Amino acid sequence: xxxxxxxxxxxxxxxxxPMVSSLPVEVQNEEPVWRSVGLxxxxxxxxxxxxxxxxxxxxxxxxxxxxxxxYQSGWTSSRVEGTVIIELFEQWAPVTTNNMIAHVExxxxxxxxFHRVINDFVTQSGDPTCKTIGVYPATSPTCGSGGTGETxxxxxxxxxxxxxxxxxxxxxxxxxxxxxxxxxxxTEAHGLDPENRDDEGYATFGIVRDGMTHIRAIADVPxxxxxxxxxxxxxxASGG
Length: 240
Hints:
Blueprint (H helix, E strand, L loop, with lengths): L5 E2 L7 E6 L42 E9 L8 E9 L5 H13 L9 E2 L4 E4 L40 E4 L12 E4 L18 E7 L1 H7 L4 E2 L16
Antiparallel strand pairs: 1-10, 2-3, 3-4, 4-9, 5-6, 6-8, 7-8, 7-9
């Protein structure tokens, strides 16, 4: 992917809890309690831009993540509290979705912020070392390159692609190096799909179902490639 861009200040805190939709699904006794929690998909109105893709439809029994976000859209703006709903496509990317579900259940993502924000491209999170509030690199010397140390193989399916709002796995040059970091496509990013690359592309495994306005607002906060946090882009917005 393109070079990493780090925000000058903390962008957003995450508190994640998995659920399932209210569509009919048989709940087994050995399944975790959260799989019996109901949601109403008709309430999901703040969606990504529509595209001709199977990812536009919700599917019975898929895990759904509720992500609480907190951010400021400008230096003098009031803090915004919001919720983003993400559906994971377990039927098409079982390894990748199970990896994220395990990290959500363990609390790995609680309090983690978006450490990489590129307007009209992606917002990236999932690094457990990116939790200390402050200007990078005071947050953590490893913020942006951290993980659990346990990787998963690259997983693709013909039904999955980088549509607007897609959830994908970040990785290094090694296709099988994805760990805990993930990103949200803030616009369609099909240049990351395997058929459009010579490095096997990046895995997608979910999509934002509600709260896309929050993702677009977060994508508009100031960022900098410099460790000092100076020379910010998007100068009229700020996160904190």
